[in-house]
Amino acid sequence: MFMSEATAETLQLRDQWGRVARDLRISLTDRCNLRCSYCMPPEGLDWLPTEQTLTDAEVMRLMRIGVEMLGIEEIRFTGGEPLLRRSLEDLVAFGASLRTTSGARPGLSLTTNALGLDKRAAALAEAGLDRVNVSMDSVDPDVYRHISHRDRLASVFAGIQAAFDAGLTPVKINAVAIRDVNDAGLRDLLRYSLRVGAQLRIIEHMPLGPRETWSRANMVPQDEILDYLGEEFELTPAETADPSAPAKLWNVAPGADHPGGSVGVIASVTKPFCADCDRTRLTADGQIRNCLFSRTETDLRGPMRSGADDSKLARLWADAMWEKKPGHGIDDPGFIQPERYMSEIGG
């Protein structure tokens, strides 16, 4: 295997285009208690057998290698739905015990649908979790049920409140905009977010679910989102402190029924941010993905269970990142959607 510059000697996950991965997304399970249409079929998927999923000890070992040997500075726990992992608090606490190559504690966040978060937010905060991203595509119960195939919106509201109460802030709300499904409710969603003090992030619909659910016709692009929001809210561009952050931000002026704040749009399709991407992904079954849209993976579970030492695993991980392509290629004529759905990859 080609040995890249991005080895344990440099303590970086560098690719051929000069990008360095410092943000690790760890999928803790492919299972989910919702069936969001842009993520998986309504009947669900065949979940990974337990023996194929990384154990807690294996997740912890790869977290340690990433942080202590390869320069990871941020860890986000994803799924599926990571709250379905009973040991989530233990994994968070382990992450909080690590120190980066610069001696700092890594940032720890969680992407969740918030079902059950009201019962665990305090314990997660005590374990060391910093903040949460909550996936919620509408504040209309009927629209939420239509997208998620579950009637659980009240539980999401309770989870968001619990996150605030536990200090897991800033609370960010992620919403995928789908034409003629929830796009007409984006202003209501922004108004709710501003009122409770959350930061709304509206995401362009990406081809990561069932193939028949995505087309450019049902994708709402960033410019259209901003025009629609601008009919009611006064928006001005905001400076983004982190150039690798996927969301471009706009300040929202206070209004008669809200205190103002900010809103972001993640324009992954129409205005891709691949040139600034700093993410590396670990799936629930121990595969490294160097891009959300990658059609190849690098297995760490197999070598780890066969006795590979930390240096070997670090080298495998580094080589995987070295091969990262310059962009996701959605607009390329030869683009092929990844075989895995979003819930199987991790957000």
UniProtKB/TrEMBL annotation:
S-adenosyl-L-methionine binds at residues 38, 80, 135, 206. Its cofactor is [4Fe-4S] cluster. Residues 16-246 form the Radical SAM core domain. Pathway: Cofactor biosynthesis; molybdopterin biosynthesis. GTP binds at residues 25, 76, 111, 172, 279-281. GO terms for molecular function: 4 iron, 4 sulfur cluster binding; cyclic pyranopterin monophosphate synthase activity; GTP 3',8'-cyclase activity; GTP binding; metal ion binding; S-adenosyl-L-methionine binding. Its EC number is 4.1.99.22. InterPro entries: Aldolase_TIM, Elp3/MiaA/NifB-like_rSAM, MoaA, MoaA-like, MoaA_NifB_PqqE_Fe-S-bd_CS, MoaA_twitch, MoCo_biosynth_MoaA/MoaC, rSAM. The keyword 4Fe-4S applies. [4Fe-4S] cluster 1 binds at residues 32, 36, 39. Keywords: 4Fe-4S, GTP-binding, Iron, Iron-sulfur, Lyase, Metal-binding, Molybdenum cofactor biosynthesis, Nucleotide-binding, S-adenosyl-L-methionine. Binds 2 [4Fe-4S] clusters. Binds 1 [4Fe-4S] cluster coordinated with 3 cysteines and an exchangeable S-adenosyl-L-methionine and 1 [4Fe-4S] cluster coordinated with 3 cysteines and the GTP-derived substrate. Gene3D superfamilies: Aldolase class I. It comes from the Bacteria. The keyword Iron-sulfur applies. It catalyses: GTP + AH2 + S-adenosyl-L-methionine = (8S)-3',8-cyclo-7,8-dihydroguanosine 5'-triphosphate + 5'-deoxyadenosine + L-methionine + A + H(+). GO terms for biological process: Mo-molybdopterin cofactor biosynthetic process. It is an enzyme of class 4 (lyase). Monomer and homodimer. Catalyzes the cyclization of GTP to (8S)-3',8-cyclo-7,8-dihydroguanosine 5'-triphosphate. Belongs to the radical SAM superfamily. MoaA family. This is GTP 3',8-cyclase. It comes from Trueperella bernardiae.
